[in-house]
Amino acid sequence: MTSKSKKRKQRIKERQQEAWQAQKGQRKTVRHNTAANQEKHRADWQPLQPDEFGVVADRRIMPRDEMERRKQVETLAAQAVATDFNEAMWQRLAAATPYALGIVVEVSKGLCRVALDGKVIVCDWRGVLIAEQTGYTNVIAVGDRVLVSPQEAGRGFVQEALPRRSGLGRADPFYSHLRQLLTANVDQVLVVAAWREPHLWLQMVDEYLIGAARNNLTGIVCINKIDLAQDMAEVEELLRPYQTLNHPILYTSAVTGEGLGELTAVLRGKTTVLAGLSGVGKSTLLNAIDPGLNLRTARISNMPSREGRHTTTQAVMYPLTHLDGYVIDTPGIKDMGLLGLEAEELLDYYPDVAAFAPHCRFSNCQHEQEPDCAVRDGVENGRIAQWRYDNYVKLHARLA
Description:
This protein has helices at residues 3-33, 35-41, 66-79, 87-95, 127-131, 202-214, 232-238, 240-244, 260-267, 282-289, 351-354, 374-380, 386-399; strands spanning 100-108, 111-116, 119-125, 145-150, 156-161, 167-171, 179-184, 188-194, 218-224, 249-251, 271-275, 316-320, 325-329. With 400 residues, it is of the alpha/beta class. It folds into three domains: 1-165, CATH 2.40.50.140; 186-335, P-loop containing nucleotide triphosphate hydrolases (Rossmann fold), CATH 3.40.50.300; 343-399, Ribonucleotide Reductase Protein R1, domain 1. The chain has a six-stranded mixed beta sheet with strand order 10-9-8-11-13-12, sandwiched between helices. The relative contact order is 0.09.
């Protein structure tokens, strides 16, 4: 048996063990949340039926086979998203209830903060929401529209989370058959990177764009601190592959004000998730656009790691009142691109590399050492950017 076959067999065995452990944990959870138990212990329980939007809560145990499990998660996540939802429809749903409509702006264990009637209040949520399995490990996320009943002492109680029009999720690090919802009801992901201080890390930009694509969201690249560039032609030439792949690119500087008008236009009327390492200037840019936010900023230190420290410790939504939009900063987005992605799926997110792959001599070419590799030929003759190829090889090695 070859070394490669042994590794493949070992990975299959590990996945089977992970699936069994996840299934075992799922059985323990469902044992307390099944419809039968609820019917037995709650007189007001009613069998779940699809609502007018086709959204239902699912309590079935996930199948053992990994592919079936992943298909199940995708189906459940799709059921939980209604892409045509907008503020008017949420308002209409809320008007038919005795509750108030709010927006979740921050979530912690068992509690959340909800923007409601111009104020932000702390809310608990109904325990039954925890039992509803929609393919996600969490039932409430930043950006959710929720129905709230006010309580004493300025607190509230979340009665229901309304259907989402989109979600930004990733594979759960502990339960591979489930997803962790990072934010809900978002329109786009703004990937902010600095030209200098810290140096531009295009591999991380690629990972963010992969995460946006996996969640069917628009990925926008923002190169900040452009005032530190000595030659803009050099910057634009380096970023040309993104432009060729139709990723919008912004060049900004909070120091000179360059590009702030274009950034303002991108954020207007949208809910945007911010992605970027510490020190790239996300908060500084937002403060320049809306000084009323007064967001905390931090300089990156001279550390061996390029990541530095993250000023934001959990997902938080900020309103851009004069732009009729919102921005969400979250540290959890850092690894959303690759978590749960299979090595053979990576090529789907590198179309510039994938265009040459069918012309390789071997159908299973890894594009590294094999002879007559069309991808490496494309790199040598300048048809594939060297840094894009390098990023693909590094990420593929991490996933293999």
